[in-house]
Structures are given as C-alpha cells and as structure tokens.
Amino acid sequence: MIFRFSVVCMLLVSFGLAFGQVERVTSVDISDTGGKSFKYDIIPRPNHIKAMDGNFLISSNTIILYDGEEAKSVALYLSDYLTVTIGKNLKVSSLPVNKNREGHILITTEGKTIKTDAEDYELVVSPKNIFLKAQSRKGLFYAVQSFLQLMPVEVFSDKEQENVIWSIPCVEIKDAPALSWRGYMLDVSRHFFSKETILRQIDLLALYKINRFHLHLTDDQGWRVEIKKYPKLTEIGAWNILDNGKKQGGFYTQKDLKEIVEYAKEREVMIIPEIDMPGHSLAAVAAYPELSCHGNPVAVMTKAGISADNMCPSNEKVYEFVNDVLKEIVGIFPSPYIHIGGDEAQKSNWMKCPRCTSKAGVTKNSSDKADREKIYALQDEFIGRVKTLVKQHDKIMIGWDEIIENEHIENIEGAIIQSWRSAYPGFRAAEKGHKIILSSGTTFYLDYPNGQRNIERIYNTVVPDKYWKHFFNRENIIGVECPLWTESVSNQREVDYMTWPRMLALAEVGWTDMSYRSYGEFKSRLRENEKRLDLLGVNYQKIDGEKLACQWKPEDTPENEVLEYDITGIIDKPGKWEVAFVYEGGKQGLNTEGFEIVQNNKVIAFCNSQQSLGWRDTSPVNIVNVESVDPNMKQTLRIKLLRDEKLQGESLDGLGSVWFTYK
C-alpha cells in the first residue's frame, strides 16, 4: 500500500566517472549564509547545500538506475511515487544498463565497505543527471525526500498532473542529521485509531525524515495490542462503556502490527511499542483483577484521568504477566527498544495493600513520611525487575523520567530516559550516564493548542551543543520527540490538526545544526510546505490564521471573579472561531467556569464549560459560533474564574495567552 510518499538514494559529483561525467556548473555555497539567503523549501533544512546554475528536466525518457538491492528497493519506490503524478511509468534499471545515457537518475551505495545504518547522504542535481548516494538505505531514503521537495509541489498530489514542467533546480547537497532520534508519539489508548490512520501518519512522518514512531499502546482507557496468552486484554481491556451505553474502543491484532512495522520499515521509520506499567494499567487490571493490590473487579476508564487501580509491585503474578507480555511484544516489534512507561504511578492502593506494606515494612495507610517513602521505593524495585526482564529479551528499556527520580540508578543502568516534566530531569540523567530523549511537556506536547506560538516554541528549542559539555553530557542526548496524548483527540482529522505543522519544527530541531536554524526563515519554508500538506489532504493548523487576543498575568487576578480583555478587531467576520487558552507558566494555573465575547453590551459568543489551565492540564481549545459581528465596534473577552476556596482573594501566579483562529 502506498498512500502518497516516496524514497530513494543519493550521489555526488565525484561519482561522475562511474556513471558518466557530471556537467560542471557555476555554484554558490549557501550553507553558511544563515536563513537570509536560503531559497529552497526543504524541511528539514539540509546542513550543506550549494546552489548551481540550470535545471534537470524529468521526461518520459528518464531512467532510474540503481546498484545493489538497497538501492533497487528505493529506486522502485521512487518510480511508483513519481508515476502517480507525472503520469509516466519511469523505467527502473540496474546500473550496468544504459549507464552512460544522459537524462537519468542514479541511485547508489557505491563505495560502501561495511554494513551501516548511517543516515548521511549526498544529492547532486545537474542539467544532465541526478545522483543520489549514501552508505545505507536510510541515507538513500532521506536523499529521496529532499529530492521530492525540490520538485514542483504538484508531485505530492494523488492524481496525475497535467501541464506541469517537472523541472528540478541544480544543487549539491551533503547532509546528515544532528540527532539520531527524531520522534513522534501517538497515544492510541485514550482513543483508538485505525491501522489506516497509522499507516498514513507514517507516510507523513517519513517525508520529513522523522525516524521514530512511538505507539502508546496501553493505559487506563484501553489495551490496544493482542496478547494471545491473555485474551481478556482485548476482550475486556480494549473496550469501555460510555454513559449512553455504547461500547467504544478497539485493538490491533498481531498481524495488524506486523504489517504496520513492515510498512514503516520500508519508509525508514522504527516503531517503538510502549506498554505502560506499573501505573496507567487499569485496562490490564480490568481484564485480570488479580494483577492489582485488591483483586476486585474494575472497569476500563471512559474519561481522562489516572486510576489508582494499577499493578501491584509486590505481586509475583504481575512479573509473570509482564514477562509473558514481553515475549509476545518482541515477536511483533523488531525494534531494539521497548518503552515501559513508568510514569505517574498512583500509590494509594499500595499504602493499603497487605503485600506492599509487609514488603516495605510499614503500617497500612500510614501517614508517616518515612513510611510513604518506603512504599514509593517499591516502584524503583518494580522498574529494576522489569528492566531485567527487558534485557533478558535482548531489548533496551525506555521509560519516562519518573524511573530515575529516586536516584536508584543501579536499578536501571543502560535504560533510556524520556524527559517529559521538564528538560532538567533529562539533563540530570545524561550527567549520570543515561541516554535521554527530550520531550518536555510545555514545549513538545502536541495535545497543547496548535499554532504559531507553539511551533516557534518547539523550533527554538536549544539542544545543548558541544559547548555545553561543561554542564551536560551532550553525547547522551540522543534526540527529541513530540507526544500526542489523545484524551480530547478522537479522529484522524483531529490527529492531523494537533500534529501538523508542529512536527515540521520538530523535524528541523532533530536534523538541522543549530547554527543554520532561523525561525523567520523556517516560517517562509513552512508556507510552501502548507501547499504540500494541502495536496496530501492533511487537516493542519494554518500558521497565519491565528491571532493573539490577550495574555493573562498574575496581576490580573487579585480578588477578580471575571477577567476582562479588550479584543477589538480580533473577530472580523461571522462564522466558527477556535478559541485556544495556552498555559505558559506558574504553579496554580487558571480554572474557569467559561467565557463570553461581548460586543456593544451584547453577547455574540460564549462557552459555559469548566476548564482547567495548568502545566498538568491540556490547554483547552473551544469552538464558538459568531452569527454576526462588526469588527469596528469594541469587543470584550470575559473569562469567569472558578476559584479554589483556599485561594479566595489571592493573586493566581499563572500566566498564559488566548488565541483566536477562524475556522
């Protein structure tokens, strides 16, 4: 199945002797000019690119030549991709045939001496030939993505394009990524998404050289992977019953997941499975109550939240279960990594559990701080034992940053830490010798509102470079990842909207050297990529449609029950408007009972739902309908506060902004 993307390989001028001499052309090196002179709409931006005079024209006589099996698979993929829009079935041939003909595309791993997964590539376009060269299939694939982005934008259509001149500017690119882990996570537990949605997302990620797709397969709201030894996980744990009595959920068979893995492999995307434990495991406990501390029947969660009904760290049946699940997971996912979660484990049931309290040597329901710390230490032991099981299956364990918070480093030696609560736990872990992935919630989380402000925040992420080595162990920072949690995301269009174009910013953070990154220049390339996303049918957030209406600050909140802001001119036409509240800092956040928009003392739009704005809460997005509006009249946004009784009459230290987007 090919949705609408492609791959290939790469080459360089020095290989002209092998394939027929490359025509020498005038060139200008624009690699060191920063954002100001960069004229190509490639994302992520290549680290070395030299502009040359002239163009290469693809015609019906163009042949794609390859050497070796790796190059062949990429050549066939590229041919299939181009055939859709060009309308010509480009011939694919091994290199010895027609090797001296002009007008061909050459894909090669010539010069490769050892097996390697190196991601670097070279791409040279001259008026007579196109060369794509790399030491690995990965590199060839990435060369193809850059090649496709040099072509007219119509190449991304899903139908044949007439009256398009398939001309490609002459360039020389030598490129390699800054970071080895450039990742995206999709939570398929809170809401289940079809296999077709996953495959489509793989295609989109591949175009921008994203090489890790982390699937959050289990949580309190659903278990999404078939485990044959434990059929109730998908008979019971994959489904929940809504308030209206309807059944909701779903799961992937092992066959489904193997197909996803193979599809991703062809596009150089590695699938990383996550089985969350010991917390966020209610779906497993609902299927097999004996895994919990109390053993009582429970139901799969239907709403957002974290359940205390999780795995019992002092129950040997749990470790037997985990090992059995791992056996089947490693048979599905060839990735060297298994993510075990390890975050937000609620411990209230552990404090009441006879096994846990006996093992910890504490009294049930003790409020003594030392006793609670002993109970909390059971998680460290749990993670250590799971890490041993993962290692026995020849895999590397990944966990959220809680697995390192109690400093029991010896329990998880060799584990990779995914830092989400801030960058600091990750940097601390790097200093202690762990490989880390940066996924700071306030920067990288995609369930926060989309838009220019969030794109810029991701793009301006500073990944410590070699000059930071005095403070942080730079070589241990392997990459960055944007997670999309889906408590409030329920279909493909919403996945699109929350993911794109923010993942383009992440792609460039992971690939492009910091010295070549400029948000202003990136934004100009982003506009061209919006055309590509349009042709690919992506329901993305348009960056220029968003308007900053106001910002709330601590000094706005003393004793006020309603915050009022002048937003005159923001709503300039009737219709549906998205109103996004973006939390930006402070411990207390902001709780509201709703908001209304007033014009000339008349309410023209309102929302009455209670909302919580804080670092542990999803920044809410609301859609309001404005039937009539006069943009020249004064408009006021009124936000009604919902105060905690303890904070009556006090300032709230939270701050954030409100953004309007016409839908």
Automatic annotation (TrEMBL):
EC number, as in UniProt: 3.2.1.52
UniProt name for this protein: beta-N-acetylhexosaminidase
All residue ranges annotated as the Beta-hexosaminidase bacterial type N-terminal domain in the record: 40-176
Gene3D superfamilies in UniProt: Chitobiase/beta-hexosaminidase domain 2-like, Glycosidases
Superkingdom assignment: Bacteria
GO cellular component: membrane
Signal sequence coordinates: 1-20
Enzyme class name: hydrolase
Lineage of producing organism: Bacteria, Pseudomonadati, Bacteroidota, Flavobacteriia, Flavobacteriales
